C-alpha cells in the first residue's frame, strides 16, 4: 500500500469498499456506478455512509471498455468477469490509477494491461481501518455487527476509523 499513498488515484471495486478501505489518507478515490448499485443491493449498503462524498463515482470511457474487454478475452478471464469488473478496470485504465480488488481475474487483466493493482485483504489494508457500530440515538459504540442499540433501540451506523501507522 505504501506506494499508493499521497496523490495517486485509487479505483475501488465492490470488495475494496466492503472491506472498508479508507479513502481518508489517500488521494482521489473513484469507483463506477455499477459498484455503487451492487453495494446498495446488499446487506452492507450502509458502508457507503462511511465514504460519503469522498468516494467519487465516474463511468469509464468506451475506448477503455473496449481495450479491457479485448485484453480479458486474450487472457482468458473474460467469461469469469462481470460487467462491473470490466467497468472498474476500464476506469482504472482511464485515470492511470491503482485498482484495489480481491478479484483474481481483475488483477490478472490489470497486470496484463500494465494497470497497477493491490489486493484489499492484505495486512496493510486491514490495519488502516477499525470498524465500530455507533448508535444513532444515544451515541454508544458497539462491535460492528451490532445493528440495533440494546440500550435505546435505535439503529447503529457502521463507522470506520482510519489508523495512521501502517
Ligand atoms: Zn442507543
Give a summary of the structure in a few sentences.
The chain has 166 residues and is α/β, with parallel strands linked by helices. The chain has seven helices and eight strands, in the order βαβααβααβαβαβββ.
Name the overall outline. elongated
Strand order of the largest sheet: 3-2-1-4-5
- How many domains, in number, for the residues? 2
CATH superfamily of the largest domain: 5'-nuclease
Cα-based radius of gyration, to the nearest Å = 17 Å
Largest sheet: 5 strands, parallel
Class derived from helix and strand content: alpha/beta
What's the number of helices? 7
CATH domain fold name of the largest domain: Rossmann fold
Helix content: 25-40%
Q: Give the termini distance in whole angstroms.
A: 9 Å
**How many E-type strands?**
8
Calculate the mean pLDDT score and round it: 82
Small ligands present: zinc ion
Give start-end ranges of low-pLDDT stretches: 1-6, 123-129
Taken as a percent bin, the fraction of beta residues is: 15-25%
Q: What's the CATH C level of the largest domain?
A: Alpha Beta
Mind explaining what this structure looks like?
This protein has 166 residues and is α/β, with parallel strands linked by helices. It has 2 domains: 122 residues, Rossmann fold (3-Layer(aba) Sandwich); 36 residues. The chain contains 7 helices and 8 strands, in the order βαβααβααβαβαβββ. The strands form 2 sheets. Strands 3-2-1-4-5 form a 5-stranded parallel beta sheet. The longest helix is centred in the middle third of the chain and has 14 residues. The termini are close together. Zinc ion binds next to loops. The site of zinc ion has 8 residues, from loops.
